[in-house]
Hints:
The structure holds 2 protein chains of 2 kinds. Chain A is mainly alpha-helical.
Amino acid sequence: MSLTRDEVKNVADLARLDLTDDEQAAMTRQLGSILDYVAQLQRLDVAGVEPMAHALEVKNVFREDEPAPSLPVAEALANAPDHRTTPKGEHFYAVPAVQETDDDKASAEK
Amino acid sequence: MPPGVDLTGRGAADLAASLSAGDVSAEALTDQFLQVIRRREPQVRAFLHVDEADALTQARAVDAKRQRGEPLGPLAGLPVAVKDVLCTKGQPTTCGSKILKSYRPPYDAHVIERLRAADAVLIGKTNMDEFAMGSSTENSAYQVTHNPWNLERIPGGSSGGSAAAVAACEAPLALGSDTGGSIRQPAALCGVVGLKPSYGRVSRFGLVAYASSLDQVGPFAHTVADAALLLEAIAGHDRRDSTSVDRAVPAYTTTVEVPVRPLTIGVAREYFTEGLDPEIEKAVREALKVYEGLGAKVREISLPHSPYAVATYYLVATAEASSNLARYDGVHFGRRSAVRGNLIEMYKRSRGEGFGAEVKRRIMLGTYALSSGYKDAFYLRALKVRRLIRDDFDKAFAECDVVMGPTTPTAAFKIGEKADDPLAMYLSDVYTIGANLAGLAGVSVPCGFTASGLPIGLQILAAPLEEEKLLRIARMYERATDWHTRRPTLAT
């Protein structure tokens, strides 16, 4: 089963992965051969077979909704690449602008 | 015991007896293992992080407890190496990835809490394929680990660091994780015992997720009895993992010495087909004869869907991985790209720069298999075949106590040999993957060496939650043979 370069680019977008040109080329080739290999599953008759997502028959596990100690905010934020605390003492993860401005577009193109 | 006697080649149960008899202190023992690490790491490179001072502090705390006459845990004073995929509070936990280079977990994994409660000495974090994706440990972003039996060869993977650390006598015990064979395969290639518990037997809380329906934490050791000791300490229910099984943990260390009689062993004909190295086949057939000599009945069985296990695994595991690894977004933890851009660009660059080739490949495959228009043909079909694979095992266990065969099709291959051929690498897990898909318990025990001196592993599989029987049966072989007593010769 062959995969086109455009399909690879599309999947990389879905997966939020920046791939270099070389990586795209290698991925196109390698994913193609892996898909050829997994195509053997098409030979099996699976009519009427219940899909098995899990080795255990998993059920929802419930517990009482009781307050319990949780991770302190400072510890939860300690591994963040960027975080801010407002003068009011509110804590945030900091990220680049979510809505694109013309400035962002210009800098992204650089 | 006179001071200066080297204890590092001994098994954990043996060492525990010396510690409790007062023949050696935890501090002295830990110091001996640290010396081996210092001496051998330049060649083996099994560890990513060793904090000597911290290890000695833990050991001294155990000695102090013992002196005060306080009750001690079952692993008191025993050094344990830990795969770097398990969260250790405040200490590096990189998963072999650049993206987690500076990550310091704010909590301990459940199994780490258990080790501490058992008074073990956590001696260091071991190398692994990035995010446990690989079969050779070559996919680590940090270093290549060398097989202690032949330094030009891989130790297997993804828990290659843990297997090599035990084989090289750098630690008597280690923890790894097994998603498609990542404990049993390196155990076989490094000549040690490696056990994958049944799905749900050990809590996955704090185990960094690769494929959540397949991942399990398990022990490496020199002997089956030692593996039982470590499993007993880490197994059991944990409310923080909703798939953790709420059932009492048997006293594995007590029952392990009791042989299983009568014993029926199933041998799947599909495990002895093309691709299996004749030297491996010979060693495994001889191991079966040993069991026959012990009174076991060996019966040929069929696992007709086992040839489809690798294909099924690479769709199920990658689909789950593509979802699990979405969390590495450069926001909550881990590395963020220094390149400026909008939010989406930041995600893509952080992930593109932070992940290695194999991780990218698996995220891509999983994303593709789950994408609109392909999900039914790939992912859903794989889940159906997974059911057929499980049904095969259910039938086998209705007539056999265990299923035995080779752990790997070949002995350890050369470093670099399969680096450019992902599919060839995947096929080295052909015999181990079924147990993960079906949720079985499995162990690899040393069963011989190739003519060139590379270890060979015998794989024994048991029905879900049958660890007790599995260990007893494995121990029967160990008592009848001496492969587990061999240690590699290293220059230092």
